Amino acid sequence: MTIRFSTLLLALGLCASGARAQPLAPVASASTATAVNLSAYLGNNLPRGRGPWVLGEVLFFSSNRLVSEYTWREAVRGNRGALYSNADIESDIERLMGLKKFDKVEAELYEIPGTPVPREFEGVAASTSQVRLVFSVVEKVVSETTTKPKAQAPPAALSGVVLTPTAYRGAGRYTTPGMGLDINAAYFIGRLYGKNDFANAPRKVNYIDRLGVWLLTADGKMQIQSETWLRPAISAGGQAAALLRDSPQPQLQDPNTTLTVKASDKSTKILTDGYIVASKKFGPARTSLGLMQGTMGDLVASLSEFLTPEALRFYAGKPNQRVTSRTVPFASVLFLPRPEYPLAVEVMKFNGSPLNPWLVNFKIGYFLKLNFDVAFLKYQGGYDVLGVLQFRYNHFPQR
């Protein structure tokens, strides 16, 4: 049976009160580090002169405490399962010292029993077991007159806005070419306000109407070119989305008869697309321009009853037509006034669709301090203002 190292530390009482053990996460502390013998807890110490090794865990100690700090981990390039050399460790020490938070940074390696290296590294790694990379830091003393900066929150996902992707995989060390996976959930709550000028529509103004449309998307991309001061970042990828409804679309009424028709849009759909996108940073603005090809353009028909086949027949005089699109050009501009709350706008044009719909999503959670956004749906004959909740999660495959 394998016992997690963080559990062992807690059992031995190594961590002071309030400290949190997190494997593969850096550690912060306000106190000055003291020299301690960690070998009894960390395993057999390995000489750094040999190498390379296979990383199994990265830890930070300060003043005999194991605690976590997001910004420190961002300075360390190594991930679990990576082949690491002494030169890589020295580079990590230089980056940590470059944060200007430490008087001293030392690194040691410890063998992790019961964790054999992957088979492909057996003939290369200097140790048959994976190793634990431990940084012991001495933090700069903060004077009483100096206000210690607050711990930084992880930055918001830069790999997408609301419904459209960017060419970025993420922030920090994830701006280089490689693979990325996004899980995105967008919930269109309802119509806040809408107006139309269809001659046959019974009402010209609609507001506070339930919509209840979920869009659960998996977005896999490969960044094929990184960004420089001159060229943009470029990525290609694909999306698969499940469109679900928890509320039926409003009923439509034939103005020429007393017949009431229920919109027949399916409550569950699978939408897919392939895309290519280029992104470039201009000052504080991260701009993106791209093109989607696939069935993702069918999404817009579910966002308003005025875009259903029944509405095209009764109101727009376009019988036997559906609002579909196979080509969706898009553009976005994203700002990060605060790391955790981006401010952005994206535009999607659904080419080839009846009534020529456009969808503009405004990411305004920065002002509201929550994930509530607003969408503006424009089509020939009217427009709707929609309320949206949206969440995005990044995952970066191990190299």
Describe this structure in words.
The protein has 399 residues and is mostly beta strands. Helix content is 10%, strand content 43%. The chain contains 6 helices and 17 strands. It has helices at residues 5-12, 39-42, 70-74, 86-98, 309-314, 365-368, and strands at 45-46, 53-61, 83-84, 102-116, 129-139, 178-196, 205-225, 233-245, 252-253, 260-261, 268-282, 285-294, 327-338, 341-349, 358-363, 372-379, 382-395. Strands 6-7-8-11-12-13-14-15-16-17 form a 10-stranded antiparallel beta barrel. The longest helix is centred in the N-terminal third of the chain and has 13 residues, at 86-98. The radius of gyration is 27 Å and the shape is elongated. Mean pLDDT is 80; it is low at 1-36 and 257-261.
Give the overall shape, derived from the CA principal axes.
elongated
- Strand residues, percent: 35-45%
Query: How would you classify the helix and strand content by structural class?
Result: mainly beta
Largest sheet: 10 strands, antiparallel, barrel
| Unreliable residue stretches | 1-36, 257-261
Helical percent range?
10-25%
Distance between the termini: 28 Å
Q: Can you count the beta strands?
A: 17
Q: From the alpha carbons, calculate the radius of gyration and give it in angstroms.
A: 27 Å
Q: Looking across the biggest beta sheet, what order are the strands in?
A: 6-7-8-11-12-13-14-15-16-17
What sequence of helices (H) and strands (E) makes up the elements? Answer: HHEEHEHEEEEEEEEEHEEEHEE
**Helical stretch count?**
6
Question: Taking all residues together, what is the mean pLDDT?
Answer: 80
